[in-house]
Specification:
This protein has 86 residues and is α+β, with helices and mostly antiparallel strands. 47% of the residues lie in helices and 12% in strands. The chain has 3 helices and 2 strands. It has a two-stranded antiparallel sheet.
């Protein structure tokens, strides 16, 4: 079902952008809004999974301080350095 207030929502998005915003900034805001709304619809429809379940399915574990560890289903561990957000 389409949102009856789409024009008002779009106007609000534009008005909340910083004065020097670019078209890319606007497109990003629209994308984020759409992704969140889609996720909420999926969640309400029961189409979501627990993080623990997804991590187990794909063999992903949380990493230690400066190292993110990816554990494959064959119990192989690969350390990927440099994922600290610097």
């Amino acid at each position: 079902m389409a949102n009856p207030n789409i024009k008002q929502d779009a106007k609000r998005l534009v008005e909340n952008l910083p004065p020097k915003a670019t078209w890319d900034d606007l497109m990003h805001e629209i994308y984020v809004r759409q992704a969140i709304e889609s996720g909420l619809r999926d969640s309400k429809a029961g189409k979501s999974r627990e993080v623990k379940e997804v991590r187990a399915k794909y063999g992903v574990c949380r990493g230690a301080s400066k190292t993110a560890q990816f554990v494959c289903q064959q119990n192989c561990t690969f350390a990927v350095e440099g994922l600290t957000g610097r």
